[in-house]
Amino acid sequence: MSESLKSKTIRGVGWSFIDNIASSGITFLVGLVLARLLTPSEYGIMAMIAIFVAVSNSIIDSGFSNALIRKVRIERVDYNTVFYFNLVVSIVLYLALFFASPVISYFFKEPILTEVVRVIGCVLIINALGIIPRTIFVRDVNFKLQTKVSLISSISSGGVGISMAVLGMGVWSLVGQQLSRQLLNTLFLWIYCHWRPIWEFSMQSFKDLFGFGSKLLLSGLLDTIYKNIYYIIIGRFYTSAQLGQYTRAEQFNTIFSSNLTSVIQRVSYPVLSSIQEDPERLREAYRRVIKTTMLITFACMLGLAALAKPLIVILIGEKWLPAVYFLQIISFSGMLYPLHAINLNILQVKGHSGLFLKLEIIKKTIAIGPIAVGILYGIEYMLWGSVCTSFVAYFLNSYYSADLIDYPAGKQIKDILPTFMVSFVVAVVMWGISFWNVSNYILLPIQILVGMLLTVLIYERLKLAEYLEIRRLVLSTLKHK
After folding, report:
1. Which of 100, 305, 324, 447 can pair with 331 through a Cys bridge, CB separation 3.0 to 4.6 Å?
2. Separation between Cα atoms, residue 120 and residue 267, nearest integer Å
3. How confident is the model at residue 3, as a pLDDT?
4. Is the pLDDT of residue 420 over 90?
5. Containing H/E element for 66?
6. How far is 70 from 349, CA to CA, in rounded Å?
7. Residue of 136, 143, 135, 189 lying closest to 11 (CA atoms)
8. What distance in Å separates the CA atoms of residue 373 and residue 381, rounded to the nearest whole number?
9. At what angle do helices 113-120 and 40-48 cross, to 10 degrees?
């Protein structure tokens, strides 16, 4: 990797990481406060409509943002064409949700959902307005401005949500938080971005971009439905309180797994796309991304499973105890999530969106089994089934990406096995400490301290290249502060 590209990647990772901390991290902290003010049932109500918003957002984007990022030479008409497509589709989908809201309410047997869906649906139009400015920043690997935007919108919307919850507005405090966050995010993206739309639309541009993006749309829809299908299953066949417990466990998992994946995807996709015609550089850059990412992921996710009980009890209270076991199971499938995403990134970089779609269809077909088990036997069995399908999905992803860059699953496993073993041993020690008969307020800091010290001691002994790179970056960052 050339020095300029390496420097650009490092800066992108750094600012993208801060961006995720600013948005998801602050939102998570706000969520801790809200979890003490609200009930599991109120969180469950919001989770029931998550799939409708998520699927709608996927359709609105239709894979165009990735197509624009990948395109080497971009024209003004490309941005305008995608912008007006996004906007029109968002309005149509909002109207569809508005009129379908009574049916959604009836399906989940929650009368309040009718009004909630009609209000929260406004985020579809708001998000559509921000797609092009956000895409422009990603193409430029410019995450510094996005970080500023995330910081402002996350803190402000958190204040809105907490204020509404204190006033006793229940589920509407969660609605207010989401709406204000997306509104502010889009508003400031437009303020910082110099691009402005003009009245032009090109069918040729649409066809060119949609040819690549359509397959990503279908695969993205499958993935979005799969990620949110558990909300529908639990919400329909169990109680809103149980769904609320699951969503809190999922949010604890997301703060590490999904956010780390988002950082790596956002930065690695445009960077890897820029060297897609140089196989040697592409493979080496890809290998370094995987090794470094998985060192952090294994440590975070296995550590999270070990800390689950004292962490949840201290942060959000005893009423959320059922979420502990859910979180421990989810952590095992979550640790592979970044690996899935990185392997799939190669398919996009190489322009194989058709193969990307084929893989998603195969994997989601396999995932039907755990969902059926969950309906028949319980939530825990469904989550353990998702862990199994996560491992199967990884081998499918790596099998196809291996042919494109000559980096098969066997070599990948050999590269990441040392960091997995280190994290596993450390997590077992941390989990063993959790059985001590002491206060959770004493237990949690002891577990964290032992885990961190043991991790550093082992890696200092092993001198793994990926650890040394992370250590160098951390020390370099600290010196410049």
Report:
1. 305
2. 30
3. 45
4. yes
5. helix 64-70
6. 7
7. 143
8. 7
9. 60
Residue type, 265: Q
Asked whether the beta carbons of 240 and 93 are under 8 A apart, the reply is: no
Amino acid letter at 99?
Answer: F
Contact 450, 417 (CB under 8 A): no
pLDDT in tens, 347-398: 766 666 667 677 777 877 887 888 788 778 888 888 888 888 888 888 887 7
Q: CA-to-CA distance for 470 and 481, rounded, in angstroms? A: 17
Is residue 357 within 8 Å of residue 218, measured between CB atoms? yes
**112-141, pLDDT tens digit by residue?**
999 999 999 999 999 889 888 888 777 766
Contact by Cβ (8 Å): 297, 285: no
Polymer length of the chain:
481
Token pair recorded at residue 198: 């003009």
Q: What is the pLDDT of residue 173?
A: 94
Tokens describing residue 255: 């703060």
- Closest of 223, 195, 168 to residue 38, by C-alpha: 168
Per-chain mean pLDDT for the chain: 81
φ, ψ for residue 236 (rounded to 5)? -85, -40
CA distance 375 to 237: 7
Residue 183: closest CA among 124, 228, 259: 124
Residue 458 backbone dihedrals phi, psi, to 5 degrees: -65, -45
Which ranges of 167-278 would DSSP assign to H, the alpha helix?
171-192, 203-237, 240-254, 257-274
User: What six digits make up the tokens of 429?
Assistant: 């020690």
Q: Residue 434 phi/psi, 5° resolution?
A: -65, -15
CA angle 458, 464, 469 (to 5 degrees): 110
Pull the structure tokens for residue 69. Answer: 């990022």
Do the beta carbons of residue 247 and residue 98 sit within 8 Å? no
Which residue, chain included where needed, has tokens 């990603």? 138
Residue with tokens 């970044």: 338
Cβ atoms of 338 and 294 closer than 8 Å: yes
- Residue (of 341, 327, 237, 257) closest to 299 by Cα position: 257
Using alpha carbons, select from 334, 322, 349 the residue that is nearest to residue 234. 322
Distance in angstroms (rounded) separating the CA atoms of residues 30 and 251: 12
- Give Cα separations from 91 to 20, 94, 96 (angstroms): 28, 5, 9
- The per-residue DSSP string of 97-154 comes to HHHHHHHHHHHHT-TTHHHHHHHHTHHHHHHHHHHHHHHHHHHTT--HHHHHHHHHHH
Tell me how far CA of residue 136 lies from CA of 100, 161, 196, 344, 471, in angstroms: 34, 30, 12, 22, 31
